[in-house]
């Protein structure tokens, strides 16, 4: 093992690694990722097996506490979450203040931060019991807030959790209650199972941008909700979680343009054009993203089962094929990532495009919590990177009339 004390900056030597491409920020026992081989495991269990056999709440428990729960542990966890699922009525007033045009991710981040004001005791977590209470609270209330961002956008009534339903079912009910009866997701096992799988696939991904944000904010002991709120903001960007929305917008654009994928491939290769093929490429996966494989298969199944014939799926498949045969993408090892096909499934479920990244956030929540808890239990020092200064040397102040 590396002796970290020998690498500290006191000696004056600073490692410069923009984007932290080769810098480990912590030791972690949560998620294993091998980008060359396309392997992803949560606490040692392969993502393929978890996506097929586990449900989201079990995976959340596994990520946070390190082991799969037995039946009574899972029941207690579920009951503890249900006990905390009511969101303070005054939070609705906070939500009311936002314009309907506000992006749901901005609203979700703000509401998550506002939760701290209504639960001030959740900030100081000096014991594992305090930590558990804060964890259960955010797991309970976050999906309610996520559903509210959609209801607010549509000007609909805001509901709390239906405590007779499972975690994923109640999320769907809170989002779509009173809508067109065709969207009665309570009975729709296909949709519930597909969303459960999507949330599991998104649940953790070691030190990605939003997770690193959660750890670094949490390292100042700002509290779990503030850290998660910062994670939501980090996830929002199109280079990270916002890619799922950007993919659908790109596919729509290709469709509206007549469906010729080669034009967009050429645009993505042009270094003078800021356009990138959204849903392609990954900082760590340089062979394939194992989650993308599972999702591509699920997209076919879900659309088939729901009887949805979406021309966007064919465009996506055509684009993937064309890119994988193109030397530019081959040389740079650019493959579809988890979000290339996830938006197609969300769309088939009737979830509006602007909500896609919110769904990702609900999925990533257990990972953020697990990483925050690990960081606090390991008593990690405050995150505080150094820099290499390249600015002006010492200068004398000039009064305003002499500038
Ligand atoms: N389209 C076109 N070219 C690309 C793409 C793309 N999607 N992704 C990377 N490249 C090119 C870069 O231009 C660069 O080319 P160069 O070597 O000729 O300069 C090379 O591939 C390496 O790319 P970097 O940007 O250095 O790779 P990095 O690891 O920093 O970025 C990222 C990874 C942000 C995911 C990038 O591939 C990207 O922007 N993809 C599109 C957005 C996206 O899908 N994000 C979701 C990621 S998964 C997630 O967060 C859940």
TrEMBL record:
Pfam families hit by this protein: Citrate_synt
Pathway(s) per entry: Carbohydrate metabolism; tricarboxylic acid cycle; isocitrate from oxaloacetate: step 1/2
GO molecular function, one term: citrate synthase activity
Gene Ontology CC: cytoplasm
Reactions this protein catalyses: oxaloacetate + acetyl-CoA + H2O = citrate + CoA + H(+)
Keyword annotations: Transferase, Tricarboxylic acid cycle
Any one of the GO BP annotations: tricarboxylic acid cycle
Active site per database record: 282, 339
InterPro entries per the UniProt record, alphabetical: Citrate_synth-like_lrg_a-sub, Citrate_synth-like_sm_a-sub, Citrate_synthase, Citrate_synthase_AS, Citrate_synthase_bac-typ, Citrate_synthase_sf, Citrate_synthase_typ-I
Signal peptide (residue range): none
Similarity comment: family membership: Belongs to the citrate synthase family.
Protein name listed in UniProt: Citrate synthase
């Amino acid at each position: 093992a590396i002796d970290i004390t020998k690498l500290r900056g006191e000696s004056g030597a600073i490692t410069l690694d923009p984007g932290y491409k080769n810098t480990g920020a912590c030791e972690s026992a949560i998620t294993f990722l091998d980008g060359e081989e396309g392997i992803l495991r949560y606490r040692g269990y392969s993502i393929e097996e978890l996506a097929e056999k586990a449900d989201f709440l079990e995976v959340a428990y596994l990520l946070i506490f390190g082991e799969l729960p037995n039946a009574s542990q899972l029941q207690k966890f579920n009951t503890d979450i249900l006990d905390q699922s009511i969101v303070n009525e005054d939070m609705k007033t906070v939500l009311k203040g936002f314009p309907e045009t506000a992006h749901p991710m901005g609203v979700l981040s703000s509401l998550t931060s506002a939760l701290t004001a209504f639960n001030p005791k959740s900030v100081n977590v000096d014991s594992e019991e305090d930590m558990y209470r804060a964890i259960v609270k955010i797991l309970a209330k976050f999906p309610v807030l996520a559903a509210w961002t959609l209801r607010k956008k549509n000007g609909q009534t805001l509901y709390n959790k239906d405590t007779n339903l499972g975690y994923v079912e109640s999320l769907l009910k809170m989002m779509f209650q009173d809508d067109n009866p065709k969207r009665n997701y309570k009975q729709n096992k296909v949709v519930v199972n597909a969303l459960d799988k999507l949330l599991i696939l998104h649940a953790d991904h070691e030190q990605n941008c939003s997770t690193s944000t959660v750890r670094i904010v949490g390292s100042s002991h700002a509290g779990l909700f503030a850290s998660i709120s910062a994670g939501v903001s980090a996830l929002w960007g199109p280079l990270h979680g916002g890619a799922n929305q950007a993919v659908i917008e790109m596919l729509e654009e290709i469709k509206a343009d007549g469906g010729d994928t080669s034009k967009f491939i050429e645009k993505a290769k042009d270094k003078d054009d800021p356009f990138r093929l959204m849903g392609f490429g990954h900082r760590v996966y340089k062979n394939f993203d194992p989650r993308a494989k599972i999702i591509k298969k699920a997209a076919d199944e879900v659309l088939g089962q729901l009887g949805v014939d979406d021309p966007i799926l064919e465009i996506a498949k055509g684009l993937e094929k064309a890119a994988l045969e193109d030397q530019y993408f081959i040389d740079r090892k650019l493959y579809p990532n988890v979000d290339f096909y996830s938006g197609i499934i969300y769309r088939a479920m009737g979830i509006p495009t602007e909500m896609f990244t919110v769904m990702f956030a609900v999925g990533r929540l257990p990972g953020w919590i697990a990483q925050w808890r690990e960081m606090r239990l390991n008593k990690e020092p405050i995150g505080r990177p150094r820099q290499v200064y390249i600015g002006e040397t010492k200068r004398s102040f000039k009064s305003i009339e002499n500038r």
